[in-house]
Known about the structure:
44 residues; alpha+beta; two-stranded antiparallel sheet; 1 helix; 45% helix; elongated; peptidase activity; protease; hydrolase
Amino acid sequence: xxxxxxxxxxxxxxxxxxxxxxxxxxxxxxxxxxxxxxxxxxxx
Length: 44
């Protein structure tokens, strides 16, 4: 289904990603940034 709200973008509900996809994508990016931070060479 495609809906259009006045003054807003057209939203197609069939193409929206699921909540699980959003959560896993955010967790992956968080872990990736943590690993990159820990892998940086340090100067004691």
